[in-house]
Amino acid sequence: MDQPNPSLSGVKRVVQPSRQRLQVEGLWHRFGGNGAPWVLQEIDLQLQERELVGLLGPSGCGKTSLLRLIIGFDRPCRGRVLLDGQEVSSPTWLRPPERRNIGMVFQDDALFPHLSVWDNACFGMGPGRDRSRASWLLELVGLAGLEERYPHELSGGQRQRLALARALAPAPSLVLLDEPFSNLDVEVRLHLRSELPGVLACCGATGLMVTHDPEEALAICDRVAVLNGGHLEQCAQPRQLVEAPTTGFVASFVLQANLLPAQRVDEQTVSTPLGMLRCRSSGTAIDPIAPLQVLVRPEQLQLQADAQGPASVSCREFLGRTWLYRIQLGHLTLKLRQPLSNALTLHQRCVVGIDPAAELLLYPQRLPLVLV
């Protein structure tokens, strides 16, 4: 049975000004020749030494494609990748993956079933290397005493701990983690994700973790880079992402907020499906004639049952202390959080309003970037 490792309790990551471990500069990539769609567009990303950065976005946004370019499986169409200040990828140069000193933790652990725990942990260290680091890592991740077992004799959480120890054993410059907790049970996933920053801190390691779960990224990462349709929308510390999202997509995906289509009436007023609203700019440059959208957080909306109301409850979830409703208003679907006392039933008619004290932000609607 997988248990949290008490030796990691209280271990905190301290990211101090240091050299850049990874630099991704102006990266563009597509599969196929001219005319194929771009899967990554103008990606700029830096990781400092000892930093854990989350790469967050929905399925198909380019996360795995970016990982493949960093590890060296593919060559970029434009731009370059640098590790420890040395160029390892460009349109004309590709250092092989085995010469990049990068550790990799996969979604499905990818252990060697015919090798013991000990041999799996030592696999990437090469002949003649001091094996004491592997022993220390197995103790660090809570697998001391299990060295003679085989992967099929371990729990899912233990196998993923072993995969992490194996990736860290050669002391890599960078560790890439591709949704490492997605196949685990909820309790085990929570244990392992809380321990990951402590393990990397003890090893002095730099990590880039791919995830589609905003809660996971915000909980443990020093910074979070949000991808959408091949664009890097924003890269910032978790609190900054929550308090000051720079694009409508970041607000919608990370905060699960609503984006209302809007038309400008004057400098501070817009017309929306919920009526006239006063907003302030999000800080993003807005073309005077560009389509607009208003960010409304689920807790900023108000809900009242009304048999003659224009909206209806399409879904509701009990979250312990609140209800999460999805309300259908014409073609628009809204997410609302309401106190338990405001209990509406499925398909019940209602009216939706906005808290008069709510501070609403205005964003431009992003149009697709076309470059051939």
Helix and strand layout, with pairings?
Elements: E1 20-29, E2 40-48, E3 52-56, H1 63-71, E4 78-83, E5 86-90, E6 93-94, E7 102-105, H2 117-122, H3 132-140, H4 156-168, E8 174-178, H5 186-203, E9 207-211, H6 214-220, E10 223-228, E11 231-236, H7 238-243, H8 248-255, E12 258-264, E13 269-272, E14 275-278, E15 280-281, E16 292-296, E17 301-305, E18 311-318, E19 322-329, E20 332-339, E21 349-354, E22 361-364
Parallel strand pairs: 3-9, 3-10, 7-8, 8-9, 15-22
Antiparallel strand pairs: 1-2, 1-4, 4-5, 5-6, 10-11, 12-13, 12-16, 13-14, 16-22, 17-21, 18-19, 18-21, 19-20
How would you describe this protein?
With 372 residues, the protein is of the alpha+beta class. It folds into 2 domains: 157 residues, Rossmann fold; 108 residues, Nucleic acid-binding proteins (OB fold (Dihydrolipoamide Acetyltransferase, E2P)). The protein is built from 8 helices and 22 strands. A hairpin with a 4-residue loop joins strand 12 and strand 13. The C terminus is likely disordered.
